[in-house]
Specification:
With 339 residues, this protein is α/β, with parallel strands linked by helices. The longest helix has 15 residues. A seven-stranded mixed β-sheet has the order 3-2-1-4-5-7-6, sandwiched between helices. Strands 12-11-10-13-16-18-17 form a seven-stranded mixed β-sheet, with helices on both faces. The chain contains eleven helices and 18 strands. α6 packs parallel to α7. Helix content is 27%, strand content 31%.
Length: 339
C-alpha cells in the first residue's frame, strides 16, 4: 500500500496513538486510518470530501462522518489533523473540533512544509502548547493539547461575503474556507458566464464551488431546473448560502463525479477542478467528460472552461465526437460539445 508522505511520518510516531480514541480530519487522500486502527483503541474520520467518505464507509473498523460541520456525538480523546492546503481551513477545523471536544483533547498535526504547516504552532497558541516532534519527507509532525476552552463555534461567522458583477448580473457570494472562489471571482468562470447561451431544461453545475456559476445561470435563466454538485461539503454549504443570499432556488448534491447524480441533463456546465490538495489531479474531470453522454439528453450540451494548457479537446472528442472552442483568452478556453 502506498501512503502519502504525511502518513509515512505518522507511521514513525505510532506511540502517540496507542490505545487512543482518534478522530482523523483534514487533507485525507489515502487509507492510513485503517493502519492506525491497528494500534489505536478506535479510529473515526471526519471529512468534507464525499469521495473519501464513501471510501472509508466501506470499512467496518472505521466510523466515517461527512459534512461541513461535525454534529454527531463522537467518543474521542485525540484529533489527528492532516494539514489542508488552505490555512484558513485548518483554522476552521480546529475551531470547530476544539469547541466541540474541549480541554484535555490531544491534537497531532502533520503536513507538508510547503503547505504552510509550520504556522500550526502560532495558530494553536490560543488553545494550549504545541511541540514539533518530527521532521521527515519534507513534512512536520506536531503534538499538542487543548488546555483552554475554545469559543463556541458558529459556522455562520466563517462565511465570507463578497459582491460580484458579471454577465449583466449583480450577486452576493457566500463562501467557507477552503472553497474555490473563496473571497474572489475566478477569471475562467467569468469567461464561461459571458460565453454561455440561453439555457433551458435541466442544467447541472458540476464542481460548483461557492455557487457563482450556478447563481448567475439561475438569475439569467430563471425557468431552468438547476442542480449544483461538488465533492466538498464546504462547497455545497457555501453554494446553498449563496443561493439563499440571492433568493434563488436549486438543488444541491454532494457527489464524487456522477456517483450521486441522476441524469439526464440538457446542459452539463463546469469550471472543472484540476487540483486535489497540493497536487495536480485530472481524474475527476476526465471521468466527468468520459461519462457525459450517459448524463446528457439527446442534443444536450457539455460546456466547460479550462486553462489553455490542459489537453481536454481530445477527451471531449473521444466522448462526444466533436469539440468546439467557443471562446478563448491567453489563459482560458471555453469548450463546447453536443450529444
Amino acid at each position: 500500500m502506498s501512503y502519502t508522505a504525511a502518513s509515512q511520518v505518522i507511521a514513525r510516531q505510532l506511540e502517540f496513538f496507542e490505545n487512543r480514541k482518534v478522530l482523523v480530519v483534514g487533507e485525507l487522500s489515502d487509507s492510513y486510518p485503517l493502519e492506525l486502527a491497528q494500534v489505536a483503541q478506535s479510529v473515526a474520520v471526519f471529512t468534507t470530501n464525499y469521495g473519501y467518505h464513501r471510501s472509508m464507509s466501506r470499512h467496518s473498523q472505521i466510523q466515517s462522518y461527512f459534512g461541513a460541520e461535525l454534529t454527531a456525538d463522537a467518543d474521542i480523546d485525540m484529533i489527528l489533523l492532516y494539514w489542508p492546503k488552505a490555512k484558513a481551513e485548518a483554522e476552521y477545523l480546529l475551531a470547530m473540533l476544539l469547541a466541540k471536544f474541549g480541554p484535555q483533547t490531544e491534537v497531532c498535526i502533520v503536513g507538508e512544509n510547503r503547505s504552510g504547516v509550520r504556522s500550526a504552532e502560532k495558530m494553536f497558541q490560543a488553545y494550549g502548547p504545541l511541540t514539533k516532534y518530527d521532521s521527515a519527507r519534507r513534512c512536520s509532525f506536531y503534538w499538542g493539547r487543548c488546555d483552554h476552552q475554545a469559543p463556541a463555534f458558529d459556522i455562520n461567522s466563517w462565511f465570507r461575503s463578497y459582491p460580484i458583477e458579471v454577465a449583466g448580473t449583480e450577486l452576493t457570494i457566500r463562501s467557507l474556507p477552503g472553497v474555490f472562489s473563496h473571497g474572489e471571482f475566478d477569471k475562467g468562470s467569468e469567461l464561461l458566464l459571458k460565453t454561455l447561451p440561453a439555457l433551458h431544461g435541466r442544467v447541472l453545475d458540476f464542481g460548483c464551488g461557492a455557487g457563482v456559476i450556478g447563481a448567475v445561470m439561475k438569475t439569467k435563466n430563471p425557468d431552468i431546473t438547476l442542480e449544483l454538485c461538488d465533492i466538498s461539503a464546504l462547497a455545497i454549504e457555501s453554494a446553498r448560502e449563496t443561493f439563499k443570499a440571492n433568493n434563488l432556488e436549486a438543488t444541491f448534491t454532494a457527489t464524487n463525479v456522477y456517483t450521486a447524480l441522476e441524469g439526464p441533463y440538457n446542459y452539463l456546465i463546469s469550471n472543472p477542478p484540476f487540483h486535489a490538495g497540493l497536487k495536480t489531479f485530472y481524474a475527476a474531470t476526465e471521468d466527468f467528460i468520459a461519462q457525459a453522454p450517459s448524463y446528457l439528453k439527446p442534443e444536450g450540451q457539455l460546456i466547460i472552461v479550462a486553462n489553455s494548457f490542459l489537453r481536454y479537446p481530445p477527451l471531449i472528442e473521444a466522448s462526444l465526437g466533436s469539440c468546439e472552442m467557443a471562446a478563448s483568452t491567453n489563459k482560458f478556453n471555453i469548450y463546447a460539445a453536443k450529444k
